[in-house]
Amino acid sequence: MILFLTGLATVSALVSCDVLRVLKPDKALPRAVVVTTAALLAIVCVAVIVQLAHLAQLV
C-alpha cells in the first residue's frame, strides 16, 4: 500500500512539473519540486528493483 501511495505521489509530482513547465516555460522549476520529484522517483526505482530481486529468488 505504501508503494502504491508513493507511486501515486510520484505521478502527481511529475504532472505538476509538466504543468509548471507549460504555464511558465521561460521560468525555472522551483528547486523543491525538482528535489521532491527526484526523491520520489528514487524510492519507486529502489522498490521496483527490490521486487524484481525478490521475484528472481522465487523462480
Overview of the structural elements:
This protein has 59 residues and is mainly alpha-helical. It is 85% helix and 0% strand. The protein has helices at 2-23, 31-58. The radius of gyration is 15 Å and the shape is elongated.
Order of helices and strands: HH
Runs in which pLDDT lies below 50 for 5 or more consecutive residues are none
Instruction: Return the average pLDDT rounded to an integer.
Output: 90
User: Which overall shape is indicated by the principal axes computed on the Cα atoms?
Assistant: elongated
What integer value in Å does the Rg equal? 15 Å
Distance between the termini: 24 Å
Structural class: mainly alpha
Biggest sheet, in brief? none
Approximate helicity band: over 70%
Strand content: under 5%
- Give the total of beta strands: 0
Q: How many H/I helices?
A: 2
What is this entry, summarized?
The protein has 59 residues and is mainly alpha-helical. It has helices at 2-23, 31-58.
Keywords summarizing the entry:
2 helices; mainly alpha; 59 residues
List the helices and strands and how they pair.
Blueprint: H1 2-23, H2 31-58
